[in-house]
């Protein structure tokens, strides 16, 4: 038995691995127990080809069917995909990862992201996380989107540019804002510094964030990346709000 396997058995005996969501003992670290796994709303087809919002019906042959909002106003990015419905079951899991230093879930989250975004990863040249403002980063100590992006890059082999985008303006927390207020809140908040433009020019970028709500943040980041010369932008998030639920 290799030394790492021995160490793993010793650690598991002293500190048994716990479910990422409820804290129950599980067989493998960084996983969910069967009960929590069953409650998570993992997303998949059928969904809008552009934004990934789930459909209530199977579009059948219309594999590139679009939802009404995307037909009315196409987003600046090509496609968005997410792992989980952002609901009462997934929200505590994601918020602990985001705010409570619970980073042990990053490897599992990367595997989930790779599965949910397989079609996006297959075409991506570069992974870029949504940035935090420097003062918020100082307070939180880590950027959860960058943690996801780096874990996904290690798993997929796609290059990661964790500092390609800069959040040049500190924006108020958006939890209480509606769609239009969020759009105004992030307008002009993100910058692609001149010295980093060569990183994205002509490349197919996969933009990574923790949660997609109205899309205002990823819209603005995508616009900046495209204006900076990116060939295209796709979006991949751990959770997404499903409207109408």
Description:
By secondary structure, the protein is an alpha/beta fold. The chain has helices at residues 3-14, 34-39, 68-72, 90-99, 106-116, 118-121, 134-140, 144-156, 179-186, 197-200, 216-227, and strands at 80-85, 126-129, 159-160, 166-167, 190-191, 204-212, 232-240. A five-stranded parallel sheet has the order 1-7-6-2-3. A two-stranded antiparallel sheet has the order 4-5. Helix 5 (106-116) packs across helix 8. The protein is globular. The mean pLDDT is 88.
Give the biggest beta sheet.
5 strands, parallel
State the secondary-structure class: alpha/beta
Q: Please indicate the count of domains.
A: 2
Topology pattern, helix = H, strand = E: HHHEHHHEHHEEHEHEHE
Low-confidence stretches: none
The radius of gyration is 19 Å
What is the number of helical segments per DSSP (H or I, 4+ residues)? Answer: 11
Through-space gap between termini: 50 Å
* Main CATH class of the largest domain: Alpha Beta
Q: Beta-sheet strand percentage?
A: 5-15%
Q: Just name the CATH architecture of the largest domain.
A: 3-Layer(aba) Sandwich
The third-level CATH topology of the largest domain is Rossmann fold
Overall shape: globular
- What is the tally of beta strands? 7
Estimate the helix proportion, in percent: 25-40%
Average of per-residue pLDDT values: 88
Cross-sheet strand order for the largest sheet: 1-7-6-2-3
